Amino acid sequence: MSEHPELKNLYNEVISGKYGWNRWGLLGVLCDYVLTFHKGDLLEIGCGESSIFLSKLAEKHNRVCYHIEYSKSGVYNMQNTLGYFGKNSVVYNVKSDEFFEWEKPTSLALAFIDGDHTYEQVKKDYYNVLKYMEKGGYIFLHDTCPPDESWKVEWKCGTVYQLRQEIEEHSGVLSFTFKEQTAFGVGLTMVRVEDGCY
Length: 198
Known about the structure:
- The protein is an alpha/beta fold and 198 residues long.
- It has one domain (2-192): Vaccinia Virus protein VP39 (Rossmann fold), CATH 3.40.50.
- The protein is built from seven helices and nine strands, in the order E-H-H-E-H-E-H-E-E-H-E-H-E-H-E-E.
- The strands form two sheets. Strands 5-3-2-6-7-9-8 form a seven-stranded mixed beta sheet, with helices on both faces. A two-stranded parallel ribbon has the order 1-4.
- Strand 6 (108-113), helix 6 (119-130) and strand 7 form a beta-alpha-beta unit.
- Helix 2 (25-37) runs parallel beside helix 3 (49-60).
- The longest helix is centred in the first third of the chain and has 13 residues, at 25-37.
């Protein structure tokens, strides 16, 4: 098993502030904060570079990280490249709907949703995850601010932004969206889970 040269020190470089703010650096720092103050495990829908940070943070805080990825080739490539998944990672090569039919995760401190980019599916993922979230935990959504109309296609940001708009209109929900300078500049929305919000 080989290690991709760009992955070798990526986590440490992001945490030190040397690299990655325009990619997943902010997600890594925010998730570290969440896990410092909240009990519960991690869940990721849609694996990739973000898996590196979530895997490392699961090890740092001694939590389980559930990774859900539908692409068989994607999972194979990541499992055979050192740095993507860690000793606390549990990888599911299924659709997110199937995961929630078969598995009941333990309580979650945080979840990161970056799978299917249609409004209908991301909404289902959001409400499925919400059932297992600890009070005060956070759900992060990617692709919530497409830069222009050309990004509103499924293989880019899709219609995820429509769920962000719904969340922002809900008076009982605490949310904030980073529109630029992180998450590849297409929006990273964080939602704090509170009692009585839904």
